[in-house]
């Protein structure tokens, strides 16, 4: 009776191993590969993608799925079957040729995007983006379950089970409070930045030390430099990258802590299911919640500055912040800007909300690409209080849409919402949390996350995983409360803001 | 008419890309992978091996091969077809289950080898090795063409077209002269070693500089540390590893030059056939000839010491050899030892010849595993003039046989034979070769090798490739002449030795 299940899992294990191999080669490409290796690496990645796709759509998978008596299986095995069924259905539903058409359209999209940025003319991207949106709508229609809206079918790739009906009101509940907080802070003087020279070697030594404080096991990982920080791998081999700006030690430090949040999640998943669908991360939003909580709720907290400032003083004797409060203030400087990737905690979600509203309208057809720039600029002015000066600082700033990524942006905001929910629940469970953080003592936090998020991995749908961890369906309220409290104290705002 | 050929090549290209991916992950495993990543990497490698094997034995390959009208194709395409036909025949001839049985037997063999070394008792390896030899004979019989001897079928994996009938007399012609040279040198005082402290950073800087002198393009490669130096990759991404002993700068330097010989071959193969059977190296022996010529005929020559000694003086101001002659003498110290991997040029081939004679006898059935140690010890005494003191310094020193590698050892000696042949031909074509080497000017050498070896890649069988490059079928004579000349001069021997 379990024979088709065993065959299915054996097949899946090997597919997952190929995906891991692909991920490691992706890491290599960003960190180690010599410049002239790019063309060959592209061939290798394409061959792996073909092999993985062939396995994922292998008709034997459909056959095993039909023959499995799921009701007779234990719970985790049932969830494995449901997850394989879902990905098999999605992989086999895509019409012949759509993948190739999307690959061509997004290659053209990325080229048009670069040209449009250079010319500061969003109209140059419009034809390519119109084609991409049309193909993504085709994809969404092919993937959609009966009754599922096209945008929801795309969301499902990154945040399984999420829908615009749940997502948009949650983001909307965030928008007005954040916009108000932003305006109140803008009226106050900004605290000083850190200034001085922070040698790269000392920054990397500090990064290694702090990553270990946050639970990163270096015998199952490594830290290298890359243009864009990222995390790759699972289980016994989870690698992170960071970057160094010798004028700003917080860049390397906070990037490293962010990626450590991802890495510790991947290192803590149960070893015995690392190759099964239940053994991976629950969703992109849940993954991002782990990095954001480490970076924002913990590393940028007033209490953690008590632990961190002496470390900086040791590593940078000539240029450390004078005291924990100065460090905390510098780590939480708020400044209105136009670029999402440079945004502070107050502005960041406003960026994401704007993009989510626009991309869901593009996919559901209520917004045309021709009207996108105007819609962007008007929404930006409403939420940020300033006018977008150039397209590169506005609608042309991100590569996501030209690359065909729709439904990805909201996972950043979901990560922040989940992080605030989880941190509030964690605080309720660990009354001495602040005292622990002031000592840099992370074991209680890590045990709590391991039990509720890391070790359950993908055994539950993400919404249920978070709801079980915090005791209710997640809302934006804890995030709003957290931001008001921290920035209210720092900027001397009254509680109503 | 060419449609099945195009399909075959497209299929092969993707298989080769997967093999390259596997090779890069192998590099990562030895250089970058964190310790706890080993188990997952083994799964990834196994999944890739399965995918590669499935592609190599895909029945469509047999179908395309049947439908191709080879006579209508141009020469290089005909050679591609012949090479795919050969590997398809070999891959599909292996009986079901033999691969798995060999994997199990060699895993047990490696464990038994380690235990036998620890206990200094070769008898502990005998049962596992007996099983391995039996399976390798099964494999050889399955692979053998009509009339081909089993050992030749194994040789063919590493040196296509080579046979014991050609190989053993060639090695035998080497044995007596080498043994005589060894005895004559042993009667003379050995020149002094280099002594002093050679900082690792300076050794690596020198290695990078010298690798580039030997033609290594660092924008298509990189140099890292690993326990055992090796070379991995092709075309735009060819990586080498080296090692550092701070008491001995020649270890890192000569390892690097050796691997650079491999790397430059791989970097110089034509870009447009990198994924085709004709676009890879001709054989293991030919590959080894490139590394050996760079390391021995060039780097260890008296004239190159003129270029190298000032470099050492610059990188190691406190511990450089006094003059080029002192460097040359230290680089060519001859000492009787028991371990192949530590052997000098005079002893090295004697080690290989001994193993080749024994392993061919094991496979053709004229030697039983039970009699192997005695056969080793008696042959060693005859060739080296000393008795083997312990099994770990004798029959248990190499991991090759416990790993199931039979037919591999002779490629080391073939590499030396080919290197001497090629270098003699190169010298005849470049009358000012010594003056060039004394200046560290390698372009003429590299152009010559590119035209005759690197760019032809695998368009010709290895024996024909070498014969065309040097004008006759290769023999051991140039190697004997080269060794007698160099060591005769260095040790003051008369010409008859």
TrEMBL record, chains A, B:
This is Metal-dependent carboxypeptidase. Zn(2+) binds at residues 258, 262, 288. The keyword GTP-binding does not apply. One of its GO terms (molecular function) is metallocarboxypeptidase activity. Binds 1 zinc ion per subunit. The keyword Glycosyltransferase does not apply. GO terms for biological process: proteolysis. Keywords: Carboxypeptidase, Hydrolase, Metal-binding, Metalloprotease, Protease, Zinc.
């Amino acid at each position: 009776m379990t024979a088709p299940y065993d065959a299915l899992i054996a097949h899946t294990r090997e597919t997952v191993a190929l995906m891991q191999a692909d991920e490691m080669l992706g890491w290599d490409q960003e960190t180690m590969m010599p410049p002239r290796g790019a063309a060959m690496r592209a061939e290798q990645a394409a061959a792996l993608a073909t092999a993985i796709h062939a396995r994922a759509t292998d008709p034997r998978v459909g056959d095993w799925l039909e023959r499995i008596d799921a009701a007779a299986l234990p719970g985790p095995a049932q969830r494995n079957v449901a997850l394989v069924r879902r990905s098999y259905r999605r992989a086999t539903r895509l019409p012949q040729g759509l993948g190739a058409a999307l690959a061509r359209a997004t290659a053209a999209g990325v080229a048009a995007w670069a040209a449009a940025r250079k010319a500061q003319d969003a109209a140059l991207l419009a034809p390519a983006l119109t084609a991409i949106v049309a193909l993504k709508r085709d994809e969404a229609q092919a993937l959609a379950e009966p009754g599922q809206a096209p945008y929801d079918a795309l969301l499902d790739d990154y945040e399984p089970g999420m829908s615009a009906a749940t997502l948009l009101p949650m983001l909307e509940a965030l928008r007005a409070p954040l916009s108000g907080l932003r305006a109140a802070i803008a009226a106050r003087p900004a605290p000083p930045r850190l200034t001085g020279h922070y040698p790269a070697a000392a920054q990397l030594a500090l990064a290694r030390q702090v990553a270990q404080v946050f639970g990163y096991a270096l015998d199952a990982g490594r830290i290298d430099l890359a243009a864009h920080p990222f995390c790759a791998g699972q289980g016994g081999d989870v690698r992170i990258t960071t970057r160094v700006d010798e004028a700003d030690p917080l860049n390397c430090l906070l990037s490293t802590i962010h990626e450590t949040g991802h890495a510790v999640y991947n290192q803590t998943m149960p070893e015995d299911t690392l190759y099964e669908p239940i053994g991976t991360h629950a969703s992109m939003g849940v993954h991002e919640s782990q990095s954001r909580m480490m970076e924002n709720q913990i590393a940028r907290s007033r209490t953690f500055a008590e632990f961190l400032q002496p470390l900086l003083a040791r590593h940078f004797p000539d240029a450390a912040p004078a005291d924990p409060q100065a460090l905390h203030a510098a780590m939480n400087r708020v400044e209105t800007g136009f670029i999402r990737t440079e945004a502070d905690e107050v502005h960041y979600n406003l960026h994401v909300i704007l993009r989510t509203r626009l991309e869901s309208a593009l996919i559901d057809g209520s917004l045309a690409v021709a009207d996108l720039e105007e819609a962007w600029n008007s929404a930006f002015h409403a939420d940020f209080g300033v006018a977008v000066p150039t397209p590169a600082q506005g609608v042309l700033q991100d590569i996501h849409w030209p690359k065909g990524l729709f439904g990805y942006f909201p996972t950043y905001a979901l990560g922040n919402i989940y992080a605030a929910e989880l941190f509030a629940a964690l605080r309720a469970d660990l009354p001495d949390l602040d005292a622990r953080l002031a000592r840099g003592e992370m074991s209680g936090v890590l045990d709590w996350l391991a039990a509720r998020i890391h070790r359950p991995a993908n055994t539950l749908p993400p919404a249920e995983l978070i709801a079980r961890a915090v005791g209710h369906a997640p809302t934006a309220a804890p995030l709003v409360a957290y931001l008001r409290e921290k920035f209210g104290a720092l900027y001397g705002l009254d509680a109503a803001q």
